[in-house]
Amino acid sequence: MTNIHSSGSTGASTAAGGLSDKGLRAGSIGLLGATVIGISCIAPAYTLTASLGPTVAAVGTQMPGIFLVGFIPMLLVALGYRELNNAMPDAGTSFTWATRAFGPWIGWMGGWGLIVATVVVLSNLAGVAVDFFYLMLAQLFGNPDLADLASNVVVNVLTCLVFMVAACYVSYRGMETTKAVQYVLVAFQLVVLVWFSVAALVHFGNGTSFDALGFSADWFNPFLAPSFSAFAAGVSLSIFIFWGWDVTLTMNEETKNPKTTPGRAATLTVGIIFALYILVAVAALMFSGVGTGELGLGNEDIQGNVFAALAGPVMGPFAILMSLAVLSSSAASLQSTFVGPARTMLAMGHYKAFPKRFAAISPRYKSPGFATLMAGIVAWVFYAVMRVLSTDVLTDTILTLGMMICFYYGVTAFACVWYFRAEAFTKARAFLLKFLAPLVGGVILAVIFATTLYDSMNPDYGSGSNIGGVGLVFILAMVLFIGGVVLMLLMRRADPAFFQGRTLRKGSSTDHA
Fold it and tell me: For this UniProt entry, which residues form the secretion signal (predicted)?
């Protein structure tokens, strides 16, 4: 496969299937920078405070085991992503690769899945940033009433808009600015999370835990979950907590070695995050237990924001550092998460699957300017609507996000299997990395997707918000999917070139023309 980064090319087809350069700033990100941005996009501090409680609610002490199960398909799919990137380094990732493997229709929906997943999480990130911003002000000024401002819908939505504009601006300025901001924010949140974990374990050792729970190897056995539905819900949540590593692939046209650096950064990102999650999960269980007491992880009142409740008892006077860590984690991820949807929309505009305007590149910053702005606008509107409709925005959007992630990761995993089908059985390495790993990962994600979609129809699913007796999570998922199909059909009518295979052709790894 010819490298798509020919000098001076901004639109000519330079690789098999019609892949071509988008005009982004090539060579601006190395392995360290890509890994840092990958960790930032996952946002471990934000992710854990939002998911520890709901995961315990689903599977109890089996949380570490469920995290392990969620890690397995992520790793398997990451290996498939790496092979696709080695063959076709393109900013469109899931959209481009699924199109090359399965054709324009499935490819378009794969890209749509990535876009809506990131829009959902952008709104979620902004919401958590708002909560911790006012919590931090309350701690700084010793005025608990300031924390209550986050409950005011108007104040919440307007503050969210401020965060969204700031993050959008940094992302608009391109990868160099993004990278510089992320180094400090990522390092800070990692240090605070390790600090929290060690402090919780020290409390356990000293006998000062809230509800001490002795370590058990059974915690790592996911098959001890109460039911398969609970298992599926837990895995959907654990997939959410690992989501975001694929941002390293969407930067492939801007990395110093587009064929190898993005894949290595993705694998490194997933490994670091897995070790950190297991440490925090075990420490939280040993300190708090899974009961419904004041600081128990089973207490519904703290499940939506665990660190807000546990930081003080665990870290004492340094609790404000956790508020700062979650705030910086949310803000950093809010900014880095713009990278994925903006570059996917850029690629879809470039290949005429989206209106041409989305292919616009900022002349000054060499970033997908228009696509970045649109991602910010849509994410804020989505958050504002959800803030009014849902009694628990965080839980419902996380569960919806889990389904969207399963969908587009699964499509990409199967695209890897199909694209490399002709060479899958030629060598042991090709069989393992291009066929078996993505196939198993894709099947796991497909099962979790189907189970979660079915369960979400129950009006009691998630926060219990429903419309006409149907769970809000299911309705959200259907609106997003059906909306994608409608937009795809409208785009097909407006500009059929992409759907006729004239801008990006279906093919396989044996194609060389």
Answer: none
